[in-house]
């Protein structure tokens, strides 16, 4: 959930909102916000089920490690959840942070969304995948970051008009056609 805090309203009144997107830096506060979003979606286990929050972290961690050719994302003795979060918080390359975010949100769409009601019942999840994607995109925009999660992947937004008028409808059409097959 996004709150329109007093400080945000004041920044808008002063014209201190970013109008130009940045692509080569992800601020620390945005990284923390992303970790909060992920944690709110995955939650913790309440009842045993076939989809366990620890398994989700383990799956995401395992995929990233395999793709990068490493055994651990971060730290020596941390669980997969902490490794993923520390990686998002501390990775130096923007593309690597976005790899972790992109993969995690793809997982939300493909695995959690179809069975979210059951998942929510068995966990402490507070945020459904669609709401998480909406919040992620708002947070990107609030921070002037030129990326958006659309059509099942993170995309670079070079032109807001072109993205809104051409790219989004096209991706939506393609995504819906893929789901129907």
TrEMBL record:
<dbReference type="InterPro" id="IPR049503">
    <property type="entry name" value="AbiJ_NTD4"/>
</dbReference>
<protein>
    <recommendedName>
        <fullName>HEPN AbiJ-N-terminal domain-containing protein</fullName>
    </recommendedName>
</protein>
<dbReference type="Pfam" id="PF18863">
    <property type="entry name" value="AbiJ_NTD4"/>
</dbReference>
<feature type="domain" description="HEPN AbiJ-N-terminal">
    <location>
        <begin position="4"/>
        <end position="170"/>
    </location>
</feature>
């Amino acid at each position: 959930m996004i709150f329109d805090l007093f400080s945000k309203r004041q920044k808008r009144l002063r014209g201190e909102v970013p109008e130009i997107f940045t692509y080569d830096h992800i601020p620390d506060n945005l990284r923390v916000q992303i970790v909060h979003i992920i944690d709110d979606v995955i939650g913790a286990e309440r009842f045993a089920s076939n989809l366990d929050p620890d398994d989700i972290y383990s799956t995401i961690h395992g995929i990233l490690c395999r793709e990068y050719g490493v055994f651990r994302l971060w730290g020596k003795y941390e669980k997969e959840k902490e490794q993923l979060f520390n990686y998002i918080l501390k990775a130096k390359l923007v593309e690597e942070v976005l790899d972790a975010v992109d993969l995690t949100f793809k997982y939300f769409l493909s695995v959690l969304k179809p069975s979210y009601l059951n998942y929510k019942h068995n966990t402490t999840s507070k945020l459904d995948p669609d709401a998480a994607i909406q919040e992620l995109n708002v947070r990107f925009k609030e921070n002037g970051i030129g990326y958006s999660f659309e059509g099942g992947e993170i995309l670079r937004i070079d032109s807001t008009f072109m993205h809104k008028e051409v790219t989004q409808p096209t991706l939506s059409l393609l995504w819906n056609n893929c789901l129907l097959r």
